[in-house]
Structure formats: C-alpha cells, structure tokens
Amino acid sequence: MVTEQALNDAVKTVIVPGVERSLDDLNLIQKITIREDGVEIALANAALGVEVQEYLTDSLRAALAALKIKTVTVTYHEVKPIDLNHITHVVAVMSGKGGVGKSSVSAMLAVALNRAGKSTGILDADITGSSMPKMFGLKNRPLGSENGILPVASASGISIISMNLMLPEQESAVIWRAPLLTKAIQQFWGEVLWGKLDYLIIDLPPGTADAPLTVMQSIPIQGVIIVSTPQSLVEMIVKKAVNMAQKMQKPILGIVENMSYFYVPELKKKYELFGKSKGAALAKDTGVPLLAILPIEPDLARLADEGKIELYEAPSVKLLGEAVIQAVEKKPETLK
Ligand SMILES: Nc1ncnc2c1ncn2[C@@H]1O[C@H](COP(=O)(O)OP(=O)(O)OP(=O)(O)O)[C@@H](O)[C@H]1O
Ligand SMILES: [Mg+2]
C-alpha cells in the first residue's frame, strides 16, 4: 500500500508544460482523495487549456501508475489565476529616462535571485518596447485558456510574461493608446498564473507616465528600484522618478547606478565614461540607499543581444541580488 506522503509527492511534482513548474509551485492542487478503488485529484483550471489539461491528466496517471495506483480521476475546477497567486515580494524597476539599463538590471536581478534559490518571475510592463523575450532568447508563445495565461519558462526556470511573446512576430509593433496599455499590464498581473513566487520583478518602460502609474496603483508592489547612469541630466530625471514613487507612497528600495565605469583589466584602470559617479551623491540627496554600482560590460550587452543573458556571470550581478534581498527581506527589527 502506497503512503499518503508518496502519493502527495508524486502529484505535487508533476510539471505543467510551457511554464515548466510543478502543480504545487503553481498552486493548482485543490484536493487529493484516496478511495477504495483509486485516487481522485481535483485541480484548479486556471490558465490550463484543454490540451494542457489532457497532458496533465496523462502525466498524473503515469506518475501514479508508477506507485501501482491504477484508477486515477482528475477533475478541473473553475478558479482564476489571481486567486492562486502567492507572490512574496513584488519589486518594480523604473527610471525617468530611457536606455539607462532598466531591462538589463531587471533581467540581471531576476537571474541573481534565481541563482540564490528564490523562485522568480518577470512581468515585462514595457508593452510597446518589450525586451525580455529577446534577452532571454524566448521563442515559445505562452499557453493559456479562457481564464488565464501561463508564463513562459526561461532556460534557468524564471517565469516570464511579455507582450512580445504574444505577437505574431517579435518585430510586430504594438500601437496602442494608454487605456489598452494599462489593461495589458493589469492582465499581466491578474490573469497570469504566477503561482507561488518569492520574487516578481516588474520591468517598466521609461518615464513617469501611464505604465508606472498603473503598476503603482493596481499592483501591490513592495518597493521600487530606480536605475540611473552618471549623467547629470539623468540625475534630474531620477529625482522625478523618486518623487513619483514617494507621491504614490511606494517605498524606494534603492538606486542602481548602471554603466558607471569601464574597467580595463590590462591597465588595471577604471574609466568613468559618462562622468564621475553620482550614485553616492544622488543617494544622499534623495535619502535613498545606493544598492549597486554596475560597470559597462560589453559581455553583458553581447549576451543580452544573443538571448543568453542567463549565462552572464559577474561579481556585480551577485552583489546586486544580495543587496536587493537585503533591502527587501530585512527583518523588522533591523529596519531603521
Ligand atoms: N552595464 C551595461 N554594460 C553594457 N551594456 C549595457 C549595460 N546596461 C545596459 N546595457 C545595454 O544598453 C542598452 C540599453 O539597455 P536596456 O534595454 O536595459 O535599457 P532600458 O533602460 O531598459 O531601455 P528602455 O528605456 O528602452 O526600456 C542595451 O543594448 C543593453 O544591452
Ligand atoms: Mg527597457
């Protein structure tokens, strides 16, 4: 006779295709009932299309056949993704200015958190200029059903949703007015089955307009990370972003100064190509901690272009992850 534990383990670890995470990770298991004549498994149907349901039923039957359970009934019950999502930390990455490296920082941060053993997702809130699928080399379209969408798994298992994944071709343009963009971001939050996640990183488009406003108003973000480069123009715009987050009463977890310097190992010399680092001064001025100073790394840009950002390894990435974990998870008694 098989133990209840072995049965539960076998059910929990069945993998949902596309998102490549387990039934348990996605919070889909409602009830497992052991009867005299077999086992009945009740699953939530959130974001599971008919084909995925059939696949899961077959996988469950195969997994339990290995335990010598022959009769397995799988039932699917109407539940919305939002009711299954348990995301511990939601962090938005923003900047007043374009091209400073928000998406690169979002991606590196997600990679660092994932490497640190945190289950991580990325919500690409840059609807008209999505860059996540390209950086992670994602090709598959998201699976879904009438009541939801499954994120797509990256090579290292980060769950990603992005408008580019849904377009007929990556190059297709999204020409939408603000209300539609707002709606898309809200759907990415409420209608995507994220399941249980330690971290969801939200990559915002540049500026302080509709998208950041939508994210701050309709998603319970824990805090905001602001990306800047050492240019003075950027500094002013960063202050705008800081002001916006403060007005919206969203804590700013910190500033990341990107493209701060270029290091030439042969000469053991740092070149501050965009001017002297302003991260520390900016942090002091705004009262926001400086989380990380990232150098210009040609390897990063190359790997991002090749869709292999997950292969990028650098001490700065690890430090960025650690700084964010520290800022986000610090225990109440250590909070100042
Ligand atoms: N630290 C870095 N070293 C080298 N290249 C970088 C670095 N950070 C970003 N880049 C490169 O700079 C370009 C812009 O970066 P990215 O797309 O991350 O910026 P962004 O702020 O998200 O832009 P947008 O405002 O368009 O969303 C990309 O080609 C990226 O690969
Ligand atoms: Mg971007």
Please, could you describe this protein's structure?
The chain is elongated. Helix 3 packs across helix 10 (about 315-330) and helix 5 packs parallel to helix 6 (about 210-220). It has 2 domains: about 5-80, GMP Synthetase, Chain A, domain 3; about 85-335, Rossmann fold (3-Layer(aba) Sandwich), CATH 3.40.50. The longest helix has 16 residues, at about 50-65. An 8-stranded mixed beta sheet has the order 10-11-7-12-6-13-14-17, sandwiched between helices. A 3-stranded mixed beta sheet has the order 3-4-5, with helices on one face. Strands 1-2 form a two-stranded antiparallel ribbon. The N and C termini lie far apart (about 55 Å). The protein has 10 helices and 17 strands. About 35% of the residues lie in helices and about 25% in strands. The protein is α/β, with parallel strands linked by helices and about 325 residues long. The model has no long low-confidence stretch (mean pLDDT about 90). Adenosine-5'-triphosphate (ATP) binds near residues 103, 104, 258, 296 and 301. Adenosine-5'-triphosphate binds next to helix 3 and helix 9.
Beta-strand segment tally: 17
- Relevant CATH superfamily of the largest domain: P-loop containing nucleotide triphosphate hydrolases
The CATH topology assignment of the largest domain is Rossmann fold
Mean pLDDT: 92
- Work out the helicity level: 25-40%
Compute the CA-based radius of gyration.
Answer: 22 Å
The number of helical runs is: 10
Strand order of the largest sheet: 10-11-7-12-6-13-14-17
Q: Assign the structural class, choosing from mainly alpha, mainly beta, alpha/beta, alpha+beta, or little secondary structure.
A: alpha/beta
**Ligands:** adenosine-5'-triphosphate, magnesium ion
